Amino acid sequence: MPSKIFSATTFGLDSQLIEVEADLIGEAAKFIIVGLPDTAVQEARERVRSAIKNCDIAFPRRKIIVNLAPADLKKVGPAFDLPIAVSVLITKRYLELFADDQKAVFVGELALDGTLRPVTGVLSMATLLKKLEIKRLYLPQQNADEANLISGLEIYPVKNLAELVKHLKGKSIIKKLPPSDFKKISGSRPVLLFAKIKGQQQAKRALEIATAGNHNLLMVGPPGSGKTLLAKAMPELLPPLTIDEALEVTKIYSVSGLLSHNEPLITNRPFRSPHHTASGIAMVGGGSFPKPGEITLAHRGVLFLDELPEFPRIVLENLRQPLEDGVITVSRASQTLQFPACFTLVAAANTCPCGFLTDAEKDCKCSPGQILRYQKRVSGPLLDRFDLQIEVPRVKFIDLQSEAAAAEIENILQRIDKARKIQLARFKDSQQKIFTNSEISSQNIEEYCRLDNQSKQLLKEAMFKFHLSARGYHRVIKVARTVADLTESKEIKIEHLAEALQFRIMQEN
């Protein structure tokens, strides 16, 4: 009689329950795995055989067939090692599961000596189990704290196959983890880089506004003016992730295999800075078995593109749709997956190949043709998606000798935190999952961002002067809403709108 137990696997950021069946057929000593297994799953035969032998258990000398159902779904990765081994032992009559374990889920990679190694995507699997009302999960010890973030599950951390066999036979019980308690989280927030920024008051103000409302920021200026330092200092201003955001980000990094087992919950916002040689797939995600790209790894955090014009134009154009929708859809012949991509885009660029076109102290040596070709590497539609566009000039000597005031930094942090709390309160009853002003849709902008007649007149004049598109029009209003939040003003005043408009310099050129 064939055995049947349960496992799980990830597809994109979601998981699916997998039935692992095993049966002994005939006398020929063969071990066959069916159900669209990839190479890693096929190689489980040798790992399982060796692990069982090294637990002092005789491996069946008959033909073994293991079926991974549903059979039309591609099975990827080594997480099926443990359920395959348990299923073989049940078929061999060496094990018999009690009623509580018959609907348990087993995941884990086996070493040749039977030790369990961690696998990816455990948080996604645990979320699936809670949805299906499956209580019990056996998994590698290193993954246990991650799975325990989902309440209501019985998590059993397993060191090796021999320990699990004794537990299932009732000889030596594995203690399940106590419920995890993380009602509030706190990430580290040392302000080190921001304190080193000399001068650049307008850039600091733009950084404050961008951080408060998650607005996209473009910085243009000569080499050495501090654009990269400003961008790298941005995560220091961002508040720690909320619990919901932390679980979102942790799930992404778990599936991508980038989650530290020592810190199962990510509490600080991501900061991703891919090199300009990154491919389109590396940026947006994909592959034969689609995985998250840089824009998804930057979800709820910052994606920094240094030397923006050096990126291939086709790669940059891939950012346009996720910047609007907050998600990226990856389509393949066999499946279509969606990855979240609510990130703040921060970019730095020079004005020309040599970088000194707008520098007041050093002459530009580029020809007009070179300057035009360089500036055309970034398309107008992408530039239109930057809410804040500023020039970062050369730092003066007197500013380099000054010291950052601790009180100024503390005031900036307090204003950002208050503005963020105002936004969370504003959107708490929204049907959409909105956290910041930058996520307000154009359909809802009048609901959250009302303008008085004086402000409307100013915006009308600005549209003609700066040739703002409809997108630019809405983005200016959302930036003005953030400026108002920084002053704890319930209404958007004309001075808030005026400040938002001054950060659209690239639209005038």
Q: How many helical elements? A: 22
What general form does the structure show? elongated
Q: What is the domain tally?
A: 2
CATH superfamily of the largest domain: P-loop containing nucleotide triphosphate hydrolases
Overall CATH class of the largest domain: Alpha Beta
Strand tally, please?
Answer: 18
By helix and strand content, what is the structural category? alpha/beta
Percent strand: 15-25%
Give an account of the 3D structure:
This protein has 509 residues and is of the alpha/beta class. It folds into two domains: 166 residues, Ribosomal Protein S5, domain 2 (2-Layer Sandwich), CATH 3.30.230.10; 315 residues, Rossmann fold, CATH 3.40.50. The strands form six sheets. Strands 11-14-17-10-18 form a five-stranded parallel sheet. A hairpin with a 4-residue loop joins β12 and β13. α20 packs across α21. It is elongated.
Give the helices and strands, then pairings.
Elements: E1 3-11, E2 14-25, E3 31-34, H1 39-42, H2 44-53, E4 63-69, H3 81-91, E5 105-106, E6 109-110, E7 116-117, H4 122-132, E8 136-140, H5 144-147, E9 154-158, H6 161-168, H7 201-213, E10 217-220, H8 227-237, H9 243-255, E11 271-272, H10 280-284, E12 285-286, E13 291-292, H11 294-297, E14 302-305, H12 313-317, H13 320-325, E15 327-331, E16 336-340, E17 344-349, H14 368-375, H15 380-383, E18 388-391, H16 397-400, H17 406-427, H18 445-448, H19 453-466, H20 470-486, H21 494-501, H22 505-508
Parallel strand pairs: 3-4, 5-8, 8-9, 10-17, 10-18, 11-14, 14-17
Antiparallel strand pairs: 1-2, 2-4, 6-7, 12-13, 15-16
Helix pairs in contact: 2-3, 7-8, 7-17, 7-20, 19-21, 20-21
